[in-house]
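Folds abound. A case:
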Amino acid sequence: MCVHTYIHTCIHKYMHVQAHTPAYTYCMFTVPSTLEFKLLPNPKTIPQVARLVENDVAAIDINMGCPKGYSTKFGGGAALLQTPDLIKDILTTLVSNIKTISITCKIRCLRSIEDTVELAKMIESTGVNAIGVHGRFKEERPREPAHYEYIKAVKDALSIPVIANGGSLDIKTYADLAKFREHTGCDSIMLARIAQWNPSIFSKDGPVEAMQMARDYLRLAATYDNTPSNVKYCIQQYQCLPSEIVREIHHANSIKELFNVFNIVDEYTRISEELMKKSTFYHPRRQGFVIMTPEVFAAAKFDQAGINGWNGTEVEESNQEVGLRNSRGYEWEMSFVETCPLTEI
């Protein structure tokens, strides 16, 4: 799971100090996932952040393929490709400090195949477990064809697994996934845009109708406490949704309203009732989330915007759980969390 894809789910562990919003979340019910870092390219701080999350994810990936200004203007993303010494320092330090999970990275093509292969070999020498290669130059965009020959050259030169990326333009069906892998010779493939447009691209049984995909996704989003803004964004990426549905999605302001757009609001009620058994509460003084107990519930004060205050009552942490309005305050969307002070950031 890449952080910048906004799949924020069940356990809110690390919080922005001032905004009181999740900086990193994960779900205790899903399979292990990969956390992709988009941080300032500092060899000293990246391992510190990695240690905070290494017990929660299966791998950590350093994204050196993002060409967007919000990454490159700070020297991160694809801008790192111009600083191979810094790349080596970051990856070597990360690999030497994080021993329990895999470390991977993703790059884009350099101006020549030889330069791209040379960079990939250097990255392999740092001890990373795998490398992803997006088959475009930094300035190229998804509408332009990917350079499969660059990806294949990297695969032929390395002994670690190579993951092909950038094939969404050529992938229309499930069978095209195998063709992309065959053309590049890679161990695996990585998809982004086509998976956003049509998540059923991974189904061997063929495409699923867009309305059905949206309903299925909404059920998962409510169950795993995704945020309404992200749910709206994800569903709006689906191709072939009726225009009137897209307009209604745009005006929806909560998960419940999104369920209503797709005429499954009764299912939202059912899911909400199941999740009311578990909840979280943001403790302003302790600067972290605590597991709710009846004592904590009695000590909290609420308004429509969420938590309005804390009366000073201190309670012992407990695994006992009770229903309570979520800290975001707009729905009864419940989670189960560990107490995590903000000082851990």
Observations:
- The chain is about 35% helix and 15% strand.
- The two ends are 20 Å apart (CA to CA).
- Residues 277-344 form one domain.
